[in-house]
Specification:
Elements (H helix, E strand, L loop, with lengths): L1 E2 L2 E2 L5 E7 L6 H14 L3 E6 L2 H4 L2 H4 L13 H7 L4 H14 L2 E6 L2 H10 L4 E3 L7 H8 L5 E4 L5 H11 L6 E6 L14 H8 L4 E6 L6 H7 L4 E5 L17 H17 L8 H10 L10
Parallel strand pairs: 3-4, 3-10, 4-5, 5-6, 6-7, 7-8, 8-9, 9-10
Antiparallel strand pairs: 1-2
Helix pairs in contact: 1-5, 1-11, 7-8, 10-11
Length: 293
């Protein structure tokens, strides 16, 4: 699987999930792209919704007044966090300038059409659409790589989605995910990655990581994950429900470093290394004459 010239599966592929953390501010979003690139992420991702298609009129017009609200109704709140097509074009051009992959989660059919017109190189399917066979099929037919989150699902649900997507599009990455924001350690279920390797051995797999920290992704690498999605922000103090558990720049940079270190540490073989020769000469024992022979 190749995305923007990067072959997935050889090294850790880190996606900085910006989601709605930009607060609807285009310049802030571009700054987040820039910093994510500086931290070593290979991709940045947004979330695309066609809100009036996606939500019922009742939910769209429901009052939504709280500290994280960007509008008096839920519809107004969601619309404030959406960029239009010209803004998406500007973001795509800026990502190309930075040499970082830019794509989005498509939550509905019009959003797929929107992103196809834009020309994204790949797609994310959210955990909420693990049971949405029509949307999965529609995205698979683009023939572009698909990252499928599996939060809230059983293996039967995952197999059904796999059987929907894989015959159409073999560029599939299964993402272990717990749809809890944030996710506590006991609910991470990283052992599922080992089960993925036995059940779906002909696709890549990864971790959509909602743990409030950087501990879990290196562990997931050891278990075979090669794609890592982490929510990203420039400040935990910004307004938004995702800000508190998102990684700030220093933490994202350290996560990318740690994943590289784990990759280097996973070598096989057992022999005397050059770095061991001097310490072992100093500590080692040998036969000597105890008296004049």
């Amino acid at each position: 699987m190749i995305i923007d010239g990067i072959e997935l599966g050889k090294e850790a592929y880190v996606i900085a999930e910006i989601g709605s953390n930009h607060g609807g501010n285009l310049e802030r979003c571009k700054e987040m792209f820039k910093v994510a690139k500086e931290c070593g992420a290979q991709a940045v991702k947004l979330q695309k919704r066609d809100n009036k298609t996606l939500f019922t009129p009742k939910l769209y017009n429901q009052p939504y007044i709280n500290e994280n609200s960007y509008g008096d109704t839920y519809g107004a709140h969601r619309e404030a966090l959406e960029f239009d097509f010209e803004q998406y074009k500007e973001l795509k051009a800026y990502a190309k300038e930075l040499n970082i992959t830019f794509f989005a989660t498509a939550f509905d059919f019009p959003s797929v059409d929107f992103l196809e017109k834009l020309g994204v190189p790949c797609y994310k399917i959210a955990s909420g659409d693990l049971l949405n066979t029509p949307l999965q099929r529609y995205i698979a037919q683009t023939k572009k790589p698909v990252f499928l989150s599996t939060g809230g699902g059983t293996f039967d649900d995952i197999s059904r989605a796999y059987d929907t997507i894989y015959p159409i599009n073999k560029d599939l990455v299964l993402m272990q995910c717990t749809a809890s924001y944030p996710c506590s350690p006991e609910n991470m279920y990283l052992g599922v990655l080992t089960q993925f390797s036995h059940r779906y051995f002909n696709v890549l797999y990864g971790l959509s990581d909602h743990y409030a920290g950087k501990l879990m992704s290196p562990i997931a690498y050891v278990l075979g994950a090669r794609v890592f999605e982490k929510h990203f922000t420039l400040s935990h103090t910004w307004k938004g429900t995702d800000q508190a558990f998102s990684l700030e720049p220093e933490a994202l940079g350290k996560l990318v470093r740690d994943l590289k270190h784990v990759q280097l540490a996973m070598k096989e073989g057992k022999f005397l290394l050059d770095c061991e020769k001097k310490p072992l000469y100093k500590m080692g024992k040998k036969l000597v004459f105890a008296r004049d022979m």
